[in-house]
Amino acid sequence: MTSKELLAFTLKVIGDRHGEDTVAYDMQGHSILADYYVVTSAGSNRQLHAIANAIIDEAHKHNYYDYRVEGTSESNWLLLDLGDVVVNVFTEDARDFYNVEKLWVNGKKLELKED
């Protein structure tokens, strides 16, 4: 599966689960860790976990099992490492506090379509 395909299904799942203020950065040529970084917010801890679980479920549907999840059931931030795509799902307060997007200022912020 290509990194663009991973990114596409990840963004679709986030949209389907009503992730908010979603941004994606193309880091090809800037990061050796991943091609794309995605950040989204959830209105609650429950929604945060629903988004992450839906991404994992979709990965399985595509026979993609090479991922890691960092965070716990009590976390206000989950990181899903899909290899070429890294997804950060935050509660709104945690996103404001950690401000991880500052790490990717060298990347190209992608235009995302609103459905």
UniProtKB/TrEMBL annotation:
InterPro entries: Iojap/RsfS/C7orf30, NT_sf. It comes from the Bacteria. Keywords: Cytoplasm, Repressor, Translation regulation. Its main location: cytoplasm. Pfam families: RsfS. Functions as a ribosomal silencing factor. Interacts with ribosomal protein uL14 (rplN), blocking formation of intersubunit bridge B8. Prevents association of the 30S and 50S ribosomal subunits and the formation of functional ribosomes, thus repressing translation. Belongs to the Iojap/RsfS family. Interacts with ribosomal protein uL14 (rplN). This is Ribosomal silencing factor RsfS. It comes from Lactobacillus melliventris.
